[in-house]
Protein 1
Amino acid sequence: MVLTALPLNSVGSVNVWQFDDVIEFTEGDPAGVYFMLVDSTLDRSRVPAGRRYVPATAATLTCAIETLDDTKKISRAASNPFPDDRSIWKLDFYSTDHVRGTAGIRLTLTEGAVIRTGYAKNILRIQSKTCL
Amino acid sequence: MADYTNSRFGMGSAWPDHAIETPRQQVEPLITPALLRTRHLLGLPLISGVAMPGGKRYEYTNENLADFIESAVSQAEMDLRIDIAPVQRQEKLPFDLSQFQHFGYFQLSHRPVTSVDQLAVNPTSGDNLYVVPKEWIESAYLQRGQIALLPFAIAVSGGTMGTGFSSAGNAGAAFLAVSANWQYIPAWWKITYTSGFVDMMLPRVLNEYIGTLAAMETLSNLASTFARTTSSSMGVDGLSQSQSGPAGQIYLNRLQDLQVKLDKLGNKLKGTFGYRISVGVL
């Protein structure tokens, strides 16, 4: 199993959402980023590739935004917005976050004693709030 | 990860060169598959020329394009000899008396440099013998990988005029002694620095280069699926019909246009961020 995440857009409910390539927002804007956990080793011919992965009840997911600078690094828990579908998660960004540019999310999924790690490459595209 | 609290940053941004303010957005995150389609593949149906088993033709997905973009980033880093994604590096450089007497001129091997995180005298033991104060590091030409040591500020603020390194303490004494007695010491300096574009906010022109590479890869892959018979003819008694097509050369003109664009962009980018060596004979 290789854990990764597919970004979701236009999320309204557990049944209303669509896949996207990236999630875009502007640096410093509060934003909720939705994504679906998938096992990328399965259903490779599907578009987008990967099979939905539903973690165990009470699983926790920690997300780290990859950046070199310690002061910009974000590591926080994602929430499960729809209890009926535990594959969909939401990660909140706040106005105090300094992340921008192209970034991936490092995933740490804890299901009881089992800890899985994964990576969603380049799924964040955060525009700079300045021109530089 | 890295701690930048004691780093020395360059003057202004890497792009626009040395800019500290501008009203025009000139950097952006990495090109996406959707942007690749609109900027470089507009109007082209990315559908395979041959049918898959089952009769369906393969249509290139955004995941395919994202993969081509990733490859293009790596290729661009190699072609242009620059870092696109931020990388923190350590490099050892020799002590060269002639360069040292010219204010410790150093040329780092990766560009564009965004910060010098530590500059130390580090002999073979691996321990730092002496860490150069960051205030001594001149960073005006950091984007091009050039740094120099200008210790005047501390010398003056310490009240000791002229002997720039006097405030260095005991370790500084060794530093000075070496500088007086040796012409050249290999791997004497250890420089920790960060190169690449901060947060992968890229100049638009660099995204153009990456997008062009990815588009060429896409079209080249796609063209190969059309590489079948270029012409056919049929004749029955006095009637005949013939047809011909470009087959595998279906995107040849577009690929040639993109190659010309790539060469031009590459030369400009090398001149701005990387290495461009000109050789002349008199």
Note: The interface with chain B takes residues 21-22, 47-49, 67-73, 99-103, 121-122, 125-128, 131-132 of chain A (CB under 8 Å).
Protein 2
Amino acid sequence: MLKRKDLLGIKELSVEEINLILDTAAGFKDVLGRDIKKVPTLRGKTAVNLFFEPSTRTRTSFELAAKRLSTDVINFSVPTSSVVKGESLIDTALTVQALGADFIIIRHSSAGVRHLLAKNLRASVINAGDGTNEHPTQALLDAFTIREKKGRIEGLDIAIVGDIIHSRVAKSDIYCLTKLGAKVRVIGPPTLIPKGIEGVGLEVFHNMEEGLKGMDVVMMLRIQMERQGKGFFPSTEEYSKNWGLTPERLSLARDDAIVMHPGPMNRGIEIASEIADGPRSVILDQVTNGLAVRMAVMYLLAGVKE
Amino acid sequence: MRGRFFYEVLGMQKELLNKTDIDRTLTRMAHEIIEKNKGTEKLCLVGIQRGGVYLAKRLASKIEEIEKKEIPVGSLDIALYRDDLNMRKKQPVVRRTEVPFEVTDLKIVLVDDVLFTGRSIRAAMDAVIDLGRPAAIQLAVLIDRGHRELPIKADYVGKNIPTSLSENVEVQLKEEGLEDMVILGKVVSED
């Protein structure tokens, strides 16, 4: 059973809680494979997507997950809301709650916001990405996908490649996969890997060829174009040459290695198109599994009574 | 299991069916299912998680033995269809629903271990109908203990056991690592 009303990050979750979410998601994945992809489980509940940063994939995934559970969904996006009129964040959230929201799914550029809201709201707050901090449901869907494809997580060699320092996905994945017993390493240029990360038991590689050897899972991160020319890496061409996943490089990983990417992809920059569309790519499975995992999270949070 | 412990300590439990009784009962139910359906054509068994799943598999193998025909078996999880989600202290565990065949136009025999209020069966019928439109749904239960809260009746009953609400019927099966046995006990408050 979950011990919290909110899902704010992976950092504070126990291994039992993570496994409960993954096991529950397996039951929801069954539902998504049917003709009638909807269950009456959370009818009468309301979810609000409160997105202060642009997002299409995550917002759509949460919206559909809620609808599959028979929960009503409202999308509250910043440019059209009163936030532009100067309403405070808490007032916005309290207003949404007063409309009857049971779940508030929030994406915000600032990492402290989720705690502020969770403390002040009765509704369950789900973090859909907060700045460079965490993106817990992405890590859960990644773990679910790995478990589904590999049958286990414990003992697997997993490489996360690219912009680790700015990536909330990488952060949540590292927490999640190491808790579940995987051997995680990060690969990327020194400018994009936080100093001292070795201290938490991760191996660090500044060479793609060396880093990919013997991996079971290769997880590519999106390179954020806006970082270009700010001292992190010289150009996308240069980045691609050193850190892009090509078929030659992938051949260094295990023969049955899978390739993951949280999307949206920069084809031909961090990942070659023939890999993204190839037999070892599980990128679209990640998208489908995201629905199952988000349904599981909402279902389990709904059962937490204060 | 926690409940069982209390019964044992307090000496309040009574064995209703032993291993042999359960086996004979299931054999009779298998014959009844074949008789009522005039064979096994378009017949399938769907067990309700978890006890019902084991019983469905046992019934299917008995039917196969008698008729020499294979019969499809599925498992159904009803957690997502329950009517008491807002009232329970704990969210029920979501298990797998694995019905690897098209249910439309089949005769489905739902299998459960104990029939009590009938609410699980209501949920199971909704769950089945979301998978397709079966030609018929029938119900087989090992124990019917009464106290229905919905207009639901089993087609095949292993044993009718009149109980009081302060009693508890527990079906233990070897598939769960226990000895086959049906036990009647007093509900001891777990608070």
Note: Chain B has a mean pLDDT of 91.
